[in-house]
Records
---
Amino acid sequence: MSGHPFGPLYGPGSRVLILGSWPSPKSREQGFYYGHPQNRFWPLMARLTGRERPGTIGEKRALILESGLALWDALESCTIQGAQDATIRDAVPTDIPGLLARSDIRAVVCNGAAAYNYYRKFAQPLTGLDAVRLPSTSPANAAWSMDRLAAAWGEALGPWLTL
C-alpha cells in the first residue's frame, strides 16, 4: 500500500488530535476521514458539538477545525484487507511527533484499539504524551450504542471542545 491518501487535518485552534488507524476503502475512495456511511464518527461529532451532521468534506473539515479538534491516522502506510484492522501488516507510522511540534495539540484520543496500540508503539515513546483509548465508531463495534459512544467520547473530548 502506498502512503497515506490524505494528510492531517488541523489548524491553529486544534488542541486535541483524534487518531484512527488507517482509512477504510470508502474513506480512501472519498478522499476524507470516516467515509463509510455506517461509521458513526460524523453523527457522533455532530451530537457532541451540537451541530448539524456534516455532509460534504467542507462541512466535515469545518466541524473539526471550529471545534478545536484535529484528525489523522496512526499509520502512514500498511497492508490491509478491506477495513479490518486485525489484518494490518507492514505498518509504517505517521509523523505524529512532528505534527505535535508544529501545532498547539495538547491531547491525543484514539478511535479504537488499533489506533491506540499503534500510537503507543510508535509515537508515544517520542512524544511522551499519553493517549486516551476510546471505543471505535466503526459499524463493526455494534456492542457500543450511540448513547454509550457519546458518553465515552463526550467525557474525553468535552473539556477540549470549542463550541
---
Amino acid sequence: MDFQITARDPSSKARCGLLCSTGSIVKTPAFMPCASRAVVRACSPQDIAAVGIQAVMCNAFHLLIRPGSEVIQQAGGLHQFMNWPGLIATDSGGFQVFSLADRSDISEDGVSIRSPLDGTLIEVTPGLSIQVQNALGADMIMAFDDCTPYPCDHGEAGRSMQRTLRWAQRSKAAHDNSEQALFGIVQGSVYPDLRQESARAITELGFPGYAIGGVSVGETEAEMFTALDAALPELPTDAPKHLLGVGVPTQMIEAVKRGVDLFDCVLPTRNARHGLLYTWDGLVRINNAQYREDSRPLSQSCDCPACTHYSRAYLHHLFRIEEAAAWRLLTLHNLRFFAQLMEQIREAIGAGNLGELYARMAAITAR
C-alpha cells in the first residue's frame, strides 16, 4: 500500500491524499461504511459504489463465524466474494471482544468469547485474528487490540494499553501476506500520557498505517479530542491514520483538522434504518407525519436513487409499512450524503476553508 499526500490545509494539519492498494485508489479523507458481514445491510456492493463510496470496513470476527474465512478464501478473497471493486479493510475483532466478552475473559493469550450464532466458545488470539484477516484478503487489516472500556481508572487503562502493544507485536509476527497493509492501533482510553506512550511505542514497532481505537465508546467529545491531540502528533506524519468507529460529521471534520485520513462507522446506515436522514438543508426524520403528503424529493441537492426517483411521501409510506425497500433507499441516501461530505472536506482542504464547512455542518445537524 502506498500513501501520497497531495494537498495540505495551511491553517491545520488536515491533508488530502491518495491511498493506493492493489487495484484501487482511495481519495482521502475518506469514509468507510461498515460491511461487517461482507455487506452493507440492505444494499448490494454495486449500490454503494454507485453513490460514491470508495472503501468498506468488514469484520474478521463476524466473518470467522459465518460463512467462515476458509469459504471466503476459497472464493478468491473478499473482493471476489463480494464483487467489490474498491478498497476493503477488515477490523481485527477487537471491538467485538469489547462488546461481547467479559473483561475477566481477557488474558495475555487472547480472549475467550462465545459465538453470538450458536454459543460455541472461541479462543481469539492475535495470531488467529491475523490468520483470518490474511485469509480474507482485505487490502488493510488491523492488529488485534484490547479496546479499553469507558470509564476505567488509569491503572486499568495502562494495563490494557500495554496488552495492546504486546498483541501488536504478535500480530506483526503472524502477518505473512505482503499485499496487505497491517495497521497498528493506539489505545490508552482518555488519558493523554497513555495515548502518547501508546502512539510512540506503536510507531517504534513500525507499521505502514496507524489506527486510533477506544474512542466513541461513551466518553465525552472533549475527552475524545484530548486523546487525539495526545496521540496524533506522536505518529509518523507521512503514514495514513484511521479513526476507528467515528462517524459524526462535525467530529470527523475536527479529526481531519488534526491529521486523520480515514473513518469508519455504523452511524449513517444505522440512522437510515431508523429513519434519520442527512440533507444539506438539515436532518429529516422521515417517520414524522408532516411528510405523509410531501411531494418534494428528500433533498434537491442529492442525486441518490431515493432523491432522484421518489418523493418524501413515498419514502415516508415505505418506512411506515416497514418495507425492505425503505432500508435500501434511505441507506443509499445517507451514504451519498457522507460521500458528498468527504468530497467537500477534500475541496475545503484545498481551498483552506475547513472552518466554514464545519460551521455549515454544525448548523445542519443542529436543525
